[in-house]
Write a structure and sequence with these properties.
By secondary structure, the protein is an alpha/beta fold. Helix content is 28%, strand content 29%. Helix 1 links the parallel strand 1 and strand 2. It is elongated, with a radius of gyration of 19 Å.
Length: 252
């Protein structure tokens, strides 16, 4: 079991179960989950998971498992058995690994799997998906513009000063950007947006901030939400295409 940082609030209220045999990738994934932070339970498969979770520990609410390890004909039964054995109200599965073909995706959906981490992914994407799995309804579409996790770095400007930031999530209406020292709420700012080979300067304003030690929201890293001003149609559409392309690796 990997425990979260002792001085940080866990991103998920219940532990996260990571299935799969021991490997360098699984070790790295467990460390990344613990760093979000989250409490991580590990087991080779569903059969071993019941014994692992049942030793007086809290029931998991999320299970991450390799896509290739999922047996369609028995998955729903195995997940239900784990939920009953552990007393969990619900356990949301997230499949990871190489992106499967369309027929396999259809089988996974029929087995009740909606969320994925297909292909390569970074810490922001991992946090984004854990947040989705922790939500009230995985299948419910969010209000407003669709968002997608991002990992790129860029710059923001305000009042003659510059701050380096990392994009956590992006939509055509704005985004959330990671920085230990965000701009003040309500500030007018400019954001350098990488778009293909170009870097555009977009006007925006700070909607809210999240700073460690000041009522930190555990679901988000320290940073700030930026709302964009009116965008040219081609820029707005390009962002939406990019967001939709990203979601192909995040949903079954």
């Amino acid at each position: 079991m990997t425990k979260p940082h002792p001085q940080a609030s866990p991103i998920a209220r219940e532990p996260i179960l990571l299935l799969g045999p021991e490997s360098r990738f699984h070790d790295l994934l467990a460390r990344e989950l613990a760093g979000l932070p989250a409490e991580v339970l590990r087991a080779d498969d569903f059969g071993n998971a019941g014994a692992c979770v049942g030793r007086g520990r809290r029931a998991p609410s999320i299970v991450l498992l390799p896509e290739r390890q999922i047996r369609i004909d028995s998955f729903e039964e195995e997940l239900a058995a784990l939920r009953i054995r552990t007393g969990a109200e619900r356990i949301v599965p997230i499949a990871f690994g190489r992106a499967p073909g369309s027929e396999r995706r259809a089988d996974l959906r029929r087995a009740g799997i909606e969320l994925a981490l297909f292909g390569r992914f970074g810490r922001n994407t991992l946090r984004f998906q854990i947040n989705r799995a922790s939500g009230a309804s995985v299948s419910q579409r969010p209000r407003g513009d669709r968002r997608a996790p991002k990992e790129w770095r860029t710059r923001t400007f305000s009042g003659g000063r510059e701050k380096a930031v990392r994009c956590y999530s992006l939509s055509s209406g704005g985004g959330y950007f990671v920085t230990p020292r965000p701009w003040v709420v309500g500030s007018d700012i400019a954001l350098e947006l990488p778009l293909g080979r170009r870097r555009l300067l977009l006007a925006g304003h700070i909607l809210y901030t999240n700073v460690a030690g000041a009522g930190e929201e555990r679901a988000l890293p320290s940073g700030m939400a930026i709302g964009f001003g009116p965008l040219p149609t081609q820029v707005r559409d390009a962002i939406r295409r990019d967001v939709n392309a990203t979601h192909r690796g995040l949903e079954v």
